Amino acid sequence: MAAIGDIEDPRATTPAEPFRTERLGGVVNAVSDPITVQAAAGRVVFANLAAARAVGLESPDDLLAASSLVPDRYELFDELGRAVDPDELPGRAALRTGMPQSLTIRYRDRATGHERWSSVAAVPLFDADGRPEFAVNIVHDVTESKSIEEALRVSEARARLLADATRDLDESLDLDRTIATAMALAVPHLADWATLDLVLPDGTFE
Prior knowledge:
By secondary structure, the chain is an alpha+beta fold. Helix content is 39%, strand content 21%. It contains 8 helices and 6 strands, in the order H-H-E-E-H-H-H-E-H-E-E-E-H-H. Strands 2-1-6-5-4-3 form a 6-stranded antiparallel beta sheet, with helices on both faces. A hairpin with a 5-residue loop joins strand 5 and strand 6 (132-141). Helix 7 packs antiparallel against helix 8. The longest helix has 27 residues, at 143-169.
């Protein structure tokens, strides 16, 4: 299994070395959130067990061997639904800029269509010359909170729809106008398009 001690920190002191090499890997693997470390070219050089299991792999070594797994397996989107280029992910951005980066990302599995949300934070580590050498990525799954947020949004939209419909439909007894108003209210709140079926006096449908 990959050990975090494999990553040389030029500022590490000799007294800290035994703890860093023998225990730190175990500490990081005990963390439930996925953690990875990327080298300057973007290659993943360390991953904890949670990171491997988050993408369906058994061990960190499997994840290190599948360096292109994320862009190959997942479509990435930001909170506005815009596609995210893998080069714009926080780890690579931190390596380019030397600044901490964060982003909330929606991952869609290309094979299954299954989606999850994650908050990703990255912090750069520097070499002796002050250049970004590694980026530490910490990923926190926020799918549940996003689901709650979406449920509240839909609930609020439906409440607005009901209020708007009650007000606007009371303004006219004309059937055609009432139908047009109802459809215009439904589409921006709840759907991309809509149809309406009417039961006519003779029992037929229109």
